[in-house]
Amino acid sequence: xxxKLISVLFVxxxxxxxxxxxxxxxxxxxxxxxPAIALGTWLGNNTQGRxxxxxxxxxxxxxxxxxxxxxxxxxxxxxxxxxxxxxxxGVKVSGVPREEVFIxxxxxxxxxxxxxxxxxxxxxLKNLQMDYVDLFLIHWPxxxxxxxSYDLTDSLETWRGMMEAKRLGLAKSIGLSNFxxxxxxxxxxxxxxxxxxxxxxxxLNLQQPELLAYCRAQDIAVMxxxxxxxxxxxxxxxxxxxxxxxxxxxxxIADKYNKTVPQINLRxxxxxxxxxxxxxxxxxxxxxxxxxxxxxxxAEERKTLQSFDKGYRTIPQHKWLDHPYxxxxxx
Length: 331
Known about the structure:
Helices cover 36% and strands 14% of the residues. The chain is α/β, with parallel strands linked by helices. An eight-stranded parallel β-sheet has the order 3-4-5-6-9-10-11-12. Helix 2 packs across helix 3, helix 2 packs parallel to helix 10 and helix 8 (248-257) packs across helix 9. Residues 1-18, 45-51 and 325-331 have low confidence and may be disordered.
């Protein structure tokens, strides 16, 4: 009897030690739910030592599969990332049912005309090999063509195209990316569907408290890209302020919880109410980035992390982000 009990306990411990982690879900203002963390799939460009994925590449596909096996249920992509095909293939080979995976993709700048939105999403769905996405975002607040000329379509017209995509069932929820408070308020004031989510840069150097507070008041979920900011030496510019991953204060907090500094970074963003979008092509790091839901920071620790906010953008700020509305005034 004792040996049988020991065997049962061993199986229970073994299975739980290897069970995937499930991130909590947050309610969206349209009634949907969004997982509290996502795997980001933007590989950057060759200025950071990486190149855009090749048409036949599999690096993102493998990362998506690893992420879903680890317990992620949210994958973030965009047409311009050129990773939609690999994301779709990764979901397919993972064996996780499509309805259990939350997929976010984005409308690119050269498709801002109202009647261009639905065809653009259909192209993304073809790349993804899916019938719908869970969240479709306007990638930037104004349109711009490949020749660098501006598309003077009012963002409200683009938003009406997004609403049509949702009405057709091609997107369950719709939202914005890189919009500032004034640009978001224009949509709200127009009496159109309220954006379900906003995706912006959020990290220790750029915490954006005013915009986060505005989104909380409007019940708009916030997703944070570039969540590590300048934490890693090999990705930090010379002008980037502290901290780095070996900062003594961050190391002390990480040691206390038996976590890594990047995990502390991500946990802080979660406690700010942000859905972080860490990206990685390394299995161990993908798994570590998800393992942040079994502890909580103290008020003093959050104060320490808050002190690193210097308003510094890792992604250079474009004039779009400063303008209260679009199109720009014509001179």
